[in-house]
Design brief:
- With 383 residues, the protein is an alpha/beta fold.
- The protein has a domain of 205 residues: FAD/NAD(P)-binding domain (3-Layer(bba) Sandwich).
- The protein is built from 12 helices and 19 strands.
- The strands form 4 sheets. It has a 7-stranded mixed β-sheet with strand order 6-5-14-15-16-13-17. Strands 8-2-1-12-19-18 form a 6-stranded mixed β-sheet. A 3-stranded antiparallel β-sheet has the order 3-7-4.
- Strand 10 and strand 11 form a beta hairpin.
- The longest helix is centred in the last third of the chain and has 32 residues.
- Bound molecules: flavin-adenine dinucleotide.
- The site of flavin-adenine dinucleotide has 33 residues, from helix 1, strand 3, strand 13, helix 8 and helix 9.
- It comes from Pigmentiphaga humi.
- Keywords: Monooxygenase, Oxidoreductase.
- InterPro entries: FAD-bd, FAD-dep_Monooxygenase_BioMet, FAD/NAD-bd_sf.
């Protein structure tokens, strides 16, 4: 008999898991509260682990021409000196895309796989083995997936505890229709005091810029951009600030989700709803895609769905937990570095880049599902 899945959330996690399940023969419906499938934000780094999963789904073939394959990543201080440089190849490969490009690729893959997508459909909770929508609809399913983001309604309705904690760091994001500032295939993060600015190409026509500062630095969190204040911290980037000063930006506070359990009965909690994290390592979507893939693989030929969901969490959760921990350390390191130790800051950043074992621990997610011993084409039995 055909198995049925109901999914709350038409973001990266919801669309990806929907496509994977549909490709495995499930009947799948996605409920998205918004009027259309779209992404808020500017650009996105798509790292090795994401590339493996998106490649498997055929999404990369759909969007590659609209993205950039990066060759290196640098950290530069405000004086322009390079303090860290990494080659982006092998397990460190990275693409960048406009967010809307990625979500459209996922949406189209979902439609082609036969997924039903209901927009303007807000999920209010779960009742026994059914997903409940605001219009009074009750949708029984073999599997329910909560892919409804950091403030997950389903997570809250399950009463499992945990929740979202806002962190005192702000990020502004811009998508600039120009490659004037990014002629090379590299992403550069500029550091000055407690602030960081990322500048990276995102496809043939766009540059993605993010600007990070502690919430306490009020001038830095002003929109439209306070060009004079930012230029005082990053004099070499003044022409960039002048260019983006009047462009629309999205502002977001860093945050993290604590989710004590990733499942309850037939309900799986996926993506930011389960492990939302500060974007310092650019791995939120990566973890989401990996966990969606692992879940789908483990559900193949499995009868006892609640048992598979527990086994799934046991098998893969350590990667998300470790990545979330390191993302928070990274945020704290850049936000709280003491002014009195200002002179050793460049040395520490340089040294960190050279310590392979630390990078390996911090970037565990980059290596993908093989760290959990899962192959994308695996067909397990006896779960
Ligand atoms: C500033 C910033 C930069 C980032 N940069 C990167 C990066 O470079 N690389 C990377 O891998 N990750 C990055 N991330 C993380 C990445 O964006 C997220 O991890 C990813 O989008 C999570 O996808 P999701 O589907 O779990 O949640 P979301 O993207 O939040 O999607 C949830 C969806 O559910 C819908 N929804 C919510 N509630 C309901 C409801 N009750 N009923 C129906 N629908 C509902 C929402 O409208 C939304 O469409 C970044 C995040 C931020 C904030």
């Amino acid at each position: 008999m055909t198995r049925k899945a109901e999914i709350s959330g038409g973001g990266i996690g919801g669309l990806a898991v929907a496509t994977m399940l549909a490709n495995d023969g499930w009947r799948v419906r996605v409920h998205e509260q918004g009027p259309e499938i779209r992404e808020i934000g500017a650009g996105i780094y798509v790292k090795n682990n994401s590339l493996e999963v998106l490649g498997h789904l055929g999404v990369i073939d759909r969007i590659r021409d609209r993205g950039t394959v990066l060759e290196k990543a640098q950290i530069r201080f405000a004086d322009g000196r390079i303090r860290q440089e990494r080659r982006l190849a092998g397990a460190a490969q990275v693409h960048t895309y406009a967010r809307q490009t990625l979500i459209e690729g996922l949406r189209d893959a979902a439609m082609d796989a036969g997924v039903e997508v209901n927009t303007n459909s807000r999920v209010v909770g779960v009742d026994a083995d059914a997903l409940v929508t605001q219009d009074g609809g009750r949708h029984p399913a073999d599997l329910i997936v909560a892919a409804d983001g950091v403030h997950s309604t389903i997570r809250q309705s399950l009463g499992i505890g945990g929740g979202f904690t806002e962190l005192p760091t702000r990020i502004d994001r811009f998508l600039v229709r120009s490659r004037r500032f990014t002629p090379e295939l590299q992403t550069v993060e500029h550091w000055s005091g407690h602030r960081r600015i990322g500048v990276t190409p995102a496809g043939p026509e766009h540059t993605y810029v993010y600007m990070v500062a502690p919430s306490r630095e009020t001038a830095a969190t002003r929109l439209p951009l306070d060009v004079g204040d930012w230029a005082a911290h990053f004099p070499l980037l003044r022409s960039l600030f002048e260019h983006i000063g009047d462009l629309p930006a999205t502002q977001y506070s860093y945050g993290a989700v604590d989710c004590p359990r990733w499942s309850a009965g037939r309900v799986a909690i996926l993506g930011d709803a389960a492990h939302g994290l500060p974007p310092t390592l650019g791995q939120g979507a990566g973890l989401t895609l990996m966990n969606a893939m692992a879940l789908t693989v483990m559900l193949r030929e499995a009868e006892d769905i609640p048992r598979v969901l527990s086994a799934w969490e046991q098998r893969v959760r350590f990667i998300s937990d470790r990545t979330q921990r390191w993302s928070r350390y990274y945020d704290a390191f850049t936000r709280q570095w003491p002014q009195s130790l200002h002179f050793v800051h460049p040395l520490v950043v340089w040294g960190f880049g050279k310590l392979g074992f630390l990078n390996n621990r911090m970037r565990i997610a980059d290596r993908g599902l093989r760290t959990a011993g899962i192959r994308l084409d695996e067909r397990p039995s006896g779960c």
